[in-house]
């Protein structure tokens, strides 16, 4: 995909918004950056991450990428409808979808196409200083098209995801998305937070950690306001996944309590096999 004649607007210049802006600039696009805190937008402009922070330039944006929480995205669209290009393609990256896409489509004029999406990537920490153009490399990028979307708009976002460096671009419904994400994203953040909040963590724990502990607690350095809202927005699905995880953990605990070597071995063998299958499938 040739981005040299494309203008993209990124709304929200935090970790993900900054990463989008950096990578799109690398690909040759002109990038408009809008942020609630002006000093962040000004920093992005000084650093060459974006080309403009003037909201009046939104009318030039072919693609508008919302890297903001769902409520903020809906509010921005409502407040700036006259500012968008009449045939713009919009997308968001909210971690929980709910009815966001339907709510936005209801207020958009006919020419603007909104297609929800979710790049499955990130880093620990938050903010523009943590942005990284390589964050998309090898990631999954989920599209949530609706029957009302123009096929060429969906294809453009698919090609953009691949150009960013993403490996797989599956298409699913918002309901399917939120069910999957409760397991692969929400639950993993819950577990990292619970592990790091354990009373077993002491001042000298840092002298006894290895790769496994670092890997499993990496995302515990979390954007707490954002993830609080995400957990609550996907509460029913997340509670179900916590119950399923508790059941799986209890099976291991019971085997340990009974010194049941055979069952413990079987559970670990099952985990190893499933992980190898998952890794092999990811390489396809």
From TrEMBL:
Report the family membership: Belongs to the prephenate/arogenate dehydrogenase family.
Q: What is its EC number?
A: 1.3.1.12
- Pathway note: Amino-acid biosynthesis
Q: Where is the Prephenate/arogenate dehydrogenase domain?
A: 6-284
Q: Which Gene3D superfamilies match?
A: 6-phosphogluconate dehydrogenase C-terminal like domain (1.10.3660.10), NAD(P)-binding Rossmann-like Domain (3.40.50.720)
Q: Which PROSITE patterns match?
A: PDH_ADH
List, alphabetically, the Pfam families matched: PDH_C (PF20463), PDH_N (PF02153)
The keyword Translocase is annotated on this UniProt entry: no
Task: Tell me what this protein is called.
Answer: Prephenate dehydrogenase
Q: Which UniProt keywords apply?
A: Oxidoreductase
Q: What top-level branch of life does the organism fall under?
A: Bacteria
For this chain, one GO molecular function annotation is: prephenate dehydrogenase (NADP+) activity
GO terms (BP aspect): tyrosine biosynthetic process
